[in-house]
């Protein structure tokens, strides 16, 4: 999931992103573009001995921040595994004063989710304007439940079950969709999807300019 840049500086490269220091031993990976089959595949659980897992997680953080993202799922970097990272803290760190106190999850969370499975979705659905690193330059309002309860293991394979709401709950649901082979555009009405078809086709063909690395279907 990508946060909306407020100005040109938000998209530029530096050694920090959203206040997070970049680790230059990590690698910025290309984001898989819309149209690649990996984005429509249900991802598999992994075990603690998954090859290079620690380095992969570091690379995902690096890639997410370099792409101005607030969440990134493994299928988006061409790994068909149930792994995603989220950082809602940066949204609150970059909020305008008039927006402070709007969401119940402030000041946010920075978490790694492995082998995540949703336990329950609760509460009234609410709209939020979502974007996706794999579907650049398209943002649409999406309705989602206000609370998600999810079971997962962290980077140390310690098990957790917890409920999240607000912006954090929204990001988790968006990234969870990726490991289930779903995309935020799936929630749009058929007419809206039809109107976006030309832009989506251009993304698949690589006919788009972005400020981060992308890998397009062949």
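^ Assign residues to that structure.
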């Amino acid at each position: 999931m990508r946060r909306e840049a407020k100005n040109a500086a938000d998209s530029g490269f530096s050694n920090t992103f959203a206040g997070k220091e970049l680790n230059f031993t990590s690698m910025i990976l290309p984001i898989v573009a819309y149209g690649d089959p990996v984005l429509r595949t249900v991802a598999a659980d992994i075990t603690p001995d998954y090859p290079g897992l620690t380095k992969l997680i570091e690379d995902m953080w690096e890639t997410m921040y370099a792409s101005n993202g607030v969440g990134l799922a493994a299928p988006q970097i061409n790994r068909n595994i149930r792994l995603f990272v989220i950082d809602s803290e940066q949204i609150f760190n970059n909020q305008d004063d008039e927006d402070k106190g709007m969401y119940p999850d402030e000041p946010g969370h920075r978490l790694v989710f492995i082998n995540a499975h949703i336990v329950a979705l609760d509460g009234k659905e609410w709209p939020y304007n979502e974007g996706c690193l794999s579907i650049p330059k398209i943002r649409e309002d999406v309705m989602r439940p206000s609370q998600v309860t999810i079971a997962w293991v962290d980077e140390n394979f310690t098990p957790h079950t917890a409920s999240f709401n607000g912006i954090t709950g929204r990001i988790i649901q968006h990234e969870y969709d990726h490991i289930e082979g779903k995309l935020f555009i799936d929630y749009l009405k058929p007419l809206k999807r039809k109107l976006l078809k030309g832009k989506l086709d251009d993304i698949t063909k690589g006919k788009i300019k972005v400020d981060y690395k992308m890998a397009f279907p062949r």
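The first strand starts at residue 16 and ends at 17.
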